[in-house]
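Q: Okay, next protein. This is TIGR02281 family clan AA aspartic protease from Nitratireductor aquibiodomus RA22. I've checked the sequence twice, so it should be correct. Can you predict the 3D structure?
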Amino acid sequence: MRLFWISMAILGSGLILLIANHDSGTVLGLESSAFASTLYMGLWAAVLIVGILGSGLRIGEMARTLAFWVFLLLALVAIYQYRYELQDVASRVTAGLIPGTPVSAVGSDGRAQVMVERSASGHFEVVADVNGTGLRMLIDTGASSIVLSDADARSAGFDPEGLQFQTPVATANGTALVARARAAEIQVGSIVRSNLPVYVAQPGRLDQSLLGMSFINTLAGFELRGDRIILRD
């Protein structure tokens, strides 16, 4: 208790000095902000030391306890400093476990970019949000437009019965008729586009939705790196 009151007296004196020298901007040769930070850290150090000494632990147990708390503090600081790198690692692990998961990052130019891994089928498939609904879409640079299958269009809130299938397009299964529509929002990772034109295929004419050039052309560019495609906003 004597150590506690001595510590409180020292900290109280420092607080008085800080208040008294507020206008000058310095206290004992230190900037006021630096002096205040020192007082703050000193307060926590005093509480920790008094707590350990007052616990009745032996010197060895006390040292181990102090080392544990120092290690925990350093670990928390390290996690905070490398939080963005850890988020990137977590995103990459998720992409490996769940194929099609887009990995968002920030490029050296400060722009958003999204990485997509090649799927087991050999194509680049990505889970894109269309009107708030996650749809597995094929990134197809050979397709001029965004084309939704009948099932995906229904999931995204479109009503195919109310659409007019009048536009002919060439597909792997031959020529098919599609209907024009607009998506309120399409999001791929951190890349978001609003009010984009889309086409809806007739039932049974398209097995998988296509993320075509009408979306890719809105980007700053894209790049193929082995088994990865990187979309740049």
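A: Here is a summary of the prediction. DSSP finds six helices and 13 strands in the chain. The mean pLDDT is 76.
Q: Noted. On to the next one.
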